[in-house]
Write a structure and sequence with these properties.
The chain has 82 residues and is an alpha+beta fold. It is built from two helices and five strands. The chain has helices spanning 52-60, 67-81; strands at 3-12, 15-24, 35-40, 48-50, 64-65. Strands 4-3-2-1-5 form a five-stranded mixed sheet. The chain is flat.
Length: 82
């Protein structure tokens, strides 16, 4: 079973918000997941909240992050470095 950390889309049409979830790669985008580790709201300034400790744990267990989530994680690390 390959585990991925990815975004799950919620919200209404043209007003999305996303949950950052740990899921089996075979499950649908908005389907069953193992654990929710954060949220992302692109409509708000600073709308990203992540449980970095849990993301680090899942990555140590072999989970892969999606390319979009990888970009978001880099912004969090860059913001923390400033």
């Amino acid at each position: 079973m390959a585990v991925h950390i990815r975004l799950s889309r919620h919200g209404s049409k043209k007003r999305p918000y996303y949950r950052v979830v740990v899921a089996d790669q075979r499950c649908a985008r908005d389907g069953r997941f193992i654990e929710r580790v954060g949220t992302f709201d692109p409509n708000q300034e600073g709308g990203l909240s992540l449980d970095v400790a849990r993301i680090t744990y899942w990555k140590s267990q072999g989970a892969e992050t999606s390319p979009t989530l990888e970009k978001l994680l880099k912004t969090v690390v860059a913001a923390a470095a400033k």
